[in-house]
Amino acid sequence: MELKNVGIGITSDILTAADFGATNFILNVGNSLLTKIFKQRAEKAREIALNEMKRCERSEFDIESADQFVAIVYRYQRAALERTALLNLKILAKIMKGQVTEGSVFASEFNEFSDIITSLKIKEIVYLGTLIRLHKEKTLVPKESTNEYYETDQSIAISMYKTLVGTIHFPNKRDLISCETSLQRTAFIYPSTHGLGGPIFSPTSDLERLAELVEFEELFGEINI
After folding, report:
1. Residues 6+ apart with CB under 8 A from 161
2. Which residues face 149 on adjacent strands?
3. Are 54 and 16 in contact (CB under 8 A)?
4. pLDDT tens-place string over residues 179-207
């Protein structure tokens, strides 16, 4: 039997109805101050998700997608209660909106991203967003005193250094190297080649997929970089 389509407004209905307060969990805390903090955090998480979904351009999706969306909201709730940083929650909300806009609403994909996104530090988000932007631009860097250019990977590595080192998140080169080392725990970067005194990292297909769902430039507008 063919699945009927439902209005995209159902996403807001699901988010509004979801028990973001996780009542049973909060009651078990047994502390009025902590209860207040958890409730405030839960409402902020709901607000972030609703504001993002209001920007969704898709008008309808099928009932199976609605079922998947319920599972996604449940995982988003969990992230909120696990005290995931607000910036990271915004990324998860953007993934949510990106999937619905595409019509490819899959809880499994959201869950895989969520496990990584919740662990990211601000500087790691800045690094990943900058890396994917430079890979899209593929601007070659000229070599000094010649008419030649560095190859693409080397050019991007040089541009990463020039763009990030000396900023608030990467005061020194060692901070950039430390970030790259840390990010290898994720599925977002890999050492594609060697040069310029060390490994050169490139985006994986997972990071490219994330960039299809999340507008990093919008996030950067909220980060002091």
Report:
1. 173, 176
2. 142
3. no
4. 999 999 999 999 998 877 789 999 999 99
Round to whole Å and give the CA distance between 153 and 151.
6
Interior angle at CA 49, CA 94 and CA 29, nearest 5: 125
Q: Which two tokens stand for residue 129?
A: 């967003």
Dig out the tokens for 219 from the structure: 């996030």
Length of the chain: 225
Look up the pTM and report it: 0.86
Amino acid in the structure at residue 106? F
CB 22 within 8 A of CB 80: no
Question: What is the spatial distance between Cα 63 and Cα 86, in angstroms, rounded to a whole number?
Answer: 30
> pLDDT of 162-182, one tens digit each?
999 999 999 999 999 999 999
Q: Are 202 and 192 in contact (CB under 8 A)?
A: yes
Q: What is the DSSP letter of 2?
A: P
**Phi–psi pair at 128, nearest 5 degrees:** -65, -45
Q: Token pair of 33, please?
A: 């101050």
- Residue at 67: amino acid letter: D
Distance CA 126, CA 28 (A): 37
Are 5 and 62 in contact by the 8 Å Cβ rule? The answer is yes
How far, in Å, are 3, 118, 158 from residue 169 at the CA level? 48, 19, 17
User: What span, in angstroms and rounded, lies between the C-alpha atoms of 203 and 207?
Assistant: 6
